[in-house]
Structures are given as structure tokens and as C-alpha cells.
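Researcher: We're teaching a course module on how sequence relates to structure. For the next exercise, students receive a sequence and then see the predicted structure as C-alpha cells, so they can try to spot secondary structure elements on their own. Here is the exercise chain.
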Amino acid sequence: MQNSRRKFIQTASLAMVGASLKPSSLWSNTNTIADTKRLIGIQLYSVREDMGKKPLETLTALSKMGYQYVEHANYINRKFYGWGASDFKKVLDDLGLKMPSGHTVMTARHWDSVAKDFTDAWKQTVEDAATLGQSYVISPSMDEKLRNTYDGLMTQLEIFNKSGELCKKSGMKFGYHNHDFEFKEKLNGTMVYDLILQHTDPKLVIHQLDFGNMYGAGGRAGEWVAKYPGRFQSLHVKDEIKSAKGEMNDGFESTILGTGVLDPKAIALLAKKIGGAQHFIIEQESYQGITPLECAKKDLEIIKTWGI
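Model: And here is the predicted structure for the students to work with:
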């Protein structure tokens, strides 16, 4: 994600592994999307400008392309792209779309350290996610102040687990989506992403592995899937090319699947085999002169040939 997305969401080498691992049992109820079915979707940040100007027309276009699943990146004052949860669900239903997951940043304002409980704002986030039939409530970031010390990170991860307990009551799981710092920073001599995976409960917290965000920081998605099999129920499927600046200020930006320096097909198939992957969410944030909607169409056509 770009620095602009960080601001946006605040306000609004593959390892060869022969053994297979069954994904952990996932919580579900009549209000959630069954996690036993693999699905291909799109993160709506991929078409963020279109969603900002004409959300209904954009969702209609995605549906006509063949998308059946979307993931939101806009939840402000209990509104999704301007609609309340029930109204947005109707919009999606009318278009034959479902939303199995969504991004809402968990911040310090969501946890009351005195009461040792979530604030109403986070409880409402979970409630609205359940209304929409989500399986995963995903935070694409964490509190920067807490993550800078080992004890602070442990506090944040315990809150993640508690959010998983809260989500479980509505038949969902909490999720965390990586950026780049997790693969550059260490605390007490251990890589931050290792700590995140080691101290979150797999029964309560899933991890959405973003292929692209980690690349410029030295993270290789296939290696992490092999290191922690069964832990990545959701993926942000991306490819990357060299860039003057890059979305993470790392010299790389996302591009149409299969045209960059990654091997997203191989990563996705490995994650399908041993990573526990159920949700394959396309995200492209840079477009190289092609319109975002045309990129979304090409990405869907390509991923459908992978045999997921």
C-alpha cells in the first residue's frame, strides 16, 4: 500500500514443500460466508478513485466482469462507501456480490485499557461486519506506538486475540494484514512478523498475507507460507515491478498479475496446498497507464487460469 493508503485507512526462492496440511477449522454461522469454499475477490482499494466518485457504477462494473466477492477498504462512521451496513448489503446482494472480509484499522481508540474492554466503536465495527456476512474482520495496520517495543507489541497482540474472541461470538475471526515493517524490524532479536504469528491464536486470528507489501523489505511470501503452514487463510494476491519510488517507498509497485518479478501463481498454489488459503483477494494499487477497472478485469481473467 502507498503512504497515501496509510493515511486513507487511518481516516476512513519459493520453498518447495512436499507435505500438505489441512487448514484449521474455521468458525461459521448462518450469517457468514462458509470458509470451506475457496473464493477469488478484489480489494476495493484497487479501484479506490472509482469507488469514491461512483461506487454503485463501479460495483456494477466489477459484477459484470465476473467478480462475486469484494473486500472493503472504506468504513467511516459506520458507513461503507456512504451506505450503512444493511443498505450496503442490499446493494451487494442486488448485484450478486458478497463481502467475506473487510479492512478497518484497529487503533488505540478501540481499546479501553481501564475497562479492559473494546470501545463501542470497535464493537460496532464487528457488529456491522456480521451484518454484511463477513468471515474475517481485518486490521491492515497496528498502533505504531505499541509496535515499537516488545512489551507494547505483546499488548497489541493480546488485544488481537481478544478481538478474535469478540468476532467468534458472531461466527467470524479477526485478521491481520501485513505491510513492510514486519519484515524489516526486530524486537528482542526476533523479526516482528515472527512475533506476530507466534503470539496470535490460530483459532481466533487469521493472517492475510500481502505478497507485494513485503517484497521490497526482503520478505518472500512463499518462504513465510512454508515456515508457518496453515496460518494464511487469506491472501492479497499481487505482482510487482520496479518503480522510481514504489508504493512502500521501496522501489516496487504493483502491476497486472504475471507480468512482474514475483511468481504470484506459484505462491498462491503453495498457499492453497499448505498455507490454509481460502480467500484469494486481488489487489493492484498502481496501473502503468491502464485504467484501474481494466486492470481489475485483466487480473481476474489471469487468476482464473491458475486452477485455484
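Model: If you want an answer key for the exercise: Residues 48 and 73 are 8 Å apart (CA to CA). The two ends are 25 Å apart (CA to CA).
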